[in-house]
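Worked example 2:
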Amino acid sequence: MLYNKMKAIVLGISGGSCLELSLHFIKHFPKDRMLYVVPSRNALILCRAEKQQNLKNLIKAVRTQNIAIHDSIASPLASGSFYFESCIILPTSSNTLACIANGLQDNLLTRIAAVCLKEKRKLILGVREMPLNAILLENMARLATIGVCIAPPIPGYYSGICDLESLHNFLIGKYFDLLDIPHELFMRWNGC
């Protein structure tokens, strides 16, 4: 098999309540790149509880092209020799945050985060928790000091957010900016 640095990104989905953003990310992801979606076990459970649906079926309903779902530790994504550009975990639950901050690799998602750290690949964490306690802040600070991008889904109302769709567009647009993905999902600030 030939080594190919194909433009590919990993979207991790942990058990934090923010599934709509993950689905919006998948919906708007560019067609010329590969997207590997990695739902955690808790994300599958949470989806069943919140939406009474199977998360993998929801993902497939949103998109079937240039996407692959991985959920086994035997996935090639668990190895640093398998190339992908970067990883965003959206949402990042407080449990997943704690595991990553403390080097625990108890599932495919936390193993992929460890691969990003060791291989110096971009890792973005959409931490979905509020309010934040001192432990969460310490875990975020620990990761930020080693180059992890901590990016909670916080809206910028200058972009003309007026409904849920425009809120999702703004947030996914900001994540696409961090991943160097061109888009026209929101109106950018251009001063007064």
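The longest strand covers residues 86-92. Helices lie at 19-28, 41-51, 55-62, 94-101, 108-119, 134-144, 164-178.
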